[in-house]
Specification:
Layout: H1 3-16, E1 43-44, E2 61-67, H2 71-87, E3 91-97, H3 101-112, E4 120-124, H4 128-134, H5 140-147, H6 156-159, E5 163-164, E6 167-168, E7 171-176, E8 178-183, H7 184-189, H8 201-211, E9 213-215, E10 218-221, E11 224-225, H9 230-239, H10 246-250, H11 265-278, E12 282-283, H12 289-297, E13 303-307, H13 311-318, E14 324-327, E15 343-349, H14 354-367, H15 370-380, H16 393-401, H17 403-414, H18 426-441, H19 447-468
Parallel strand pairs: 1-3, 2-3, 2-4, 11-12
Antiparallel strand pairs: 4-15, 5-6, 7-15, 8-13, 8-14, 9-10
Helix pairs in contact: 1-19, 2-15, 16-17, 18-19
């Protein structure tokens, strides 16, 4: 893409406020627009950081890898990068922590205009459409073809999200789906078993009535709680097999308008969500995912929804207090036949010279190798994207010791998975949806009115973005 086109995309994004504005979620799910904000062992790089130039023609190619993994994930990135560097002497990769995904995009915009920036970049799922339009990335499909890489090695349900048309734009790396977490001890106390796990909103209320502990007007333990999170709204649409946006969720053509306000799916979600909270046995802790998670690990809520990537952290927090169980992500109603859509992030090779791009792809191949992906799953709770990972003895041992993780694998394999939407203004769209949910739950707007207003706001942003970037 020519420089003026890149400038147009950046200017539009800045005008719309789509990057640098977190969803407000503190969820550890990397599908979240806030990314991971923990400190990392990786060195932090400013927006003016350049990708290291190659050494002499006889020396190794030096590459810069920007990522947004803090905590255990950041330590894992550092380890894998060091292992890759030690495995050969032609390429040296420097992993640099950039803060949240939104922070990383802001830094990329600043650096790319000066011809700087990383060689490889980790970007969250909802940034896919924006990155394609920006022109900053190299053609991942061309690199795949040139290397003769066999895409059959990658889980097709996961790869499908990062494939638009017949073109793979980035390589999945850290992948998650939402699942139900429950307190097994609380279930046993209430005479409930795994067979009683709720699959619908109505069943959530029924089971929560048995799990909740009240003392007069005070609730000592809620049966269920759900973070106000745009990602969950999208997943409930997927369960209904309905689109978030037109043109096949942006996969058959550029999105020109949302559809959730027209197909009945959005109203069903918000009216059902309101019924949950009004039941008195379901907690509402707002947009901050950490608050909802804390209510669960402290035993004050018996069931919550969260990313598969939250499992390891929750187990550490809970310790021996109670046993954590997991179940499938519920649907709005029993007639919903859809599955779930993956979240998380992928690896992009940036637009550089041919030698640097080829070297960067070699690093990407290493990061998605079965052994690395298996170890990555054990460290973080993300899915291995490499199918062969599941045949490794270390993965067998891990799943045997952590049966709760098996649920996420089974859910993705068993369900009618969706590729999800690709939308350039997704970050703002999620925030707008969350505002609509808040209005419905606090009684200041009906589901229909709140969604119509949200749709108008998002559609205006889509129109401005498309106009500025010559998209019809």
């Amino acid at each position: 893409m020519k420089l003026w086109q890149k400038l147009t995309v950046c200017g539009t994004i800045a005008t719309l406020g789509l990057v640098g504005c977190s969803s407000g979620s503190a969820s550890t799910d990397v599908g979240s627009s806030s990314g991971s904000s923990s400190s990392s062992s990786s060195s932090s790089s400013s927006s003016s950081s350049s990708s290291s130039s190659s050494s002499s023609s006889s020396g190794p190619i030096e590459l810069t890898f920007w990522h947004s993994m803090g905590g255990a994930g950041g330590e894992g990135i550092e380890k894998f990068t060091a292992d890759f560097n030690a495995s050969q002497d032609r390429i040296v990769v420097s992993a640099q922590y950039q803060g949240t995904y939104d922070d990383s995009i802001n830094k990329l915009k600043s650096a790319a205009m000066s011809g700087l920036g990383p060689d490889i970049m980790q970007l969250y799922d909802i940034g896919t459409s924006w990155m394609i339009d920006s022109g900053y990335a190299a053609s991942m499909q061309d690199l795949i073809d040139a290397a003769g890489y066999d895409l059959n090695k990658i889980d097709p349900n996961i790869l499908a999200y990062y494939t638009v048309g017949d073109t793979v734009y980035s390589m999945p790396f850290n992948t998650s789906t939402p699942i139900l977490y429950y307190n097994k001890d609380a279930f046993a106390e209430a005479g409930l078993t795994e067979a009683d796990l709720p699959r619908t909103f109505d069943e959530i209320i029924e089971v929560s009535q048995k799990l909740a502990i009240t003392n007069g007007s005070d609730v000592e333990r809620y049966g269920f709680a759900m973070q106000i999170y745009g990602w969950f709204f999208e997943q409930f649409l997927v369960k209904q097999q309905l689109n978030f946006a037109n043109n096949g969720n942006g996969r058959e053509g550029a999105v020109t308008a949302v559809e959730f306000d027209q197909n009945g799916g959005g109203v069903a979600i918000l009216e059902g969500w309101k019924d949950l909270v009004d039941s008195g046995v379901v907690g509402n802790f707002g947009r901050d995912g950490a608050v909802t998670t804390d209510s669960f690990v402290s035993g004050k809520t018996a069931m919550i929804l969260a990313s598969t990537a939250s499992l390891a952290g929750m187990q550490t927090s809970v310790g021996d207090s109670f046993e954590i169980g997991t179940g499938y992500f519920p649907a709005v109603s029993a007639s919903d036949a859809g599955g779930v859509s993956v979240g998380g992030a992928s690896l992009w090779v940036m637009d550089k010279d041919e030698a640097r791009e080829a070297a960067a792809f070699e690093f990407v191949e290493y990061m998605i190798s079965p052994e690395v992906q298996a170890e990555w799953a054990m460290i973080t709770g993300y899915f291995p994207v490499a199918l062969e990972s599941y045949n490794l003895p270390m993965m067998d041992d891990f799943l045997a010791a952590n049966p709760a993780f098996q649920t996420a694998i089974d859910q993705l394999a068993d369900s009618n998975a969706s590729t999800g939407a690709v939308l350039a203004v997704f970050t703002e769209a999620r925030s707008t949806i969350e505002e609509a949910i808040e209005k419905v739950l606090n009684g200041s707007a009906s589901a229909e009115d709140a969604l119509n207003a949200a749709a108008d706001t998002i559609n205006s942003s889509i129109s401005r973005y498309n106009l500025a970037n010559g998209i019809n």
